[in-house]
Amino acid sequence: MMRIVLFLATNLGILLVASITLSLLGVGTFDAAGGIDMTGMLIFCALFGFGGAFVSLFLSKWMAKRGTGARVIETPQNRQEQWLVDTVAALAKQANIGMPEVAIFPSRAPNAFATGWNRNASLVAVSQGMLERFSPNEVKAVMAHEIGHVANGDMVTLTLIQGVVNTFVMFFARIIGSFVDRVIFKNEDGPGFGFIIATIFAEIILGILASIIVMWFSRQREFRADAAAAQLAGAGNMIAALEHLRSEQGVPVELPGEMTAFGINGGVRKGLAALLMTHPPLEERIAALKTAGFR
Predict the structure, then answer these.
(1) Both ends of the chain: CA-CA distance in Å?
(2) pLDDT tens-digit map of 85-113
(3) Does the annotation count 188 as an active-site position?
(4) Active-site choice (101, 138, 146, 203)
(5) Taking a C-beta distance cutoff of 8 angstroms, is the pair 225, 280 a contact?
(6) Residues 169, 216: Cα–Cα separation, whole Å
(7) b/e for 266-281, b at 16 or more Cβ within 10 A?
(8) Taking Cα atoms as reference points, which of 3, 70, 43, 12 lies closest to residue 260?
C-alpha cells in the first residue's frame, strides 16, 4: 500500500494552500450582479484542480525518494543489486517501456513501489526487508507488478481522475461558501470572511469524500497490475509473492502516509475505513488471479 498520501496529501496540500492564498487575495471569488458566475468559476476550478494534480505528478519521483530514503542504484555494488537491475531491465523490455530508475529503500517491512510522470522515465523501488526475506522469484513478481503499473499508465490516469475530483471539490466548495456567506452571515457586499472559512472547511470535507472515488480506482488498478505481473513473471510467482505478503501482514508497513498508494502492500482496514484503502485485501487479489485462470 504505497501510493496515496504522497499523491493525495501533496495534492490536497497544494489545493488548500492555493485556495487560501487566492481567496485572501480575492481571486476565485465570483459575483456577477449579485449571483455566481458558474462558467467562470468552473473554468477557474478546473485550472487549479488539474494544476494541483499535475504538480503532484511531476514531483512524485523526487518526493518518493525523499519520503522513503530510497537509494537509486547508479552502479550495482554487489551481486544482489546487479541481479535486481538486470531483472527490472528484462521486465521493462518485456513490457515495452523505458528502463526505470531502480532503488532500494530502508524498511524492514516487505514493500515496493513505482512512480513517475512518464512510462519511459519512471522509478521502481523495493524495500530492504523484501529483498532479504522473499525468494528471487517472488521479488521478480513484485517488480513485475510495479512495472505493470508503469506500463498501464496508472499514475497519469490517477492524475486525470484526481484533477476532475479536485475541480468539482473546489467548485462545490465555493458554492457552499457563497451560500453560507449570503444566507447565514447575511453578507450582500460580495464574498466576505464567511465565504473564505466556509469554502476551506467545505474543501476539506468534500476532499475526503472525493478520496473514496480515487481510492476505488486505486484498488481496481491493483488487480490490473497483478494480472500484468502474472503475464510478465508467471502467475505462480505472483500468487506466491502475495501469499508471502499475507503471511507478514503483522509487520508494520513503515512507509510515509503519502506513499501508501504507491506500494505493493496496502495494509488492512475494516468498516468504513475500508473505503479509503488504496489496495484490495490480499485474499481478494489472490482469488482474482486464480479465478482468471492464473494458477
Answers:
(1) 24
(2) 999 999 999 999 999 999 999 999 999 99
(3) no
(4) 146
(5) no
(6) 17
(7) bbeeeeeeeebbbbbb
(8) 3
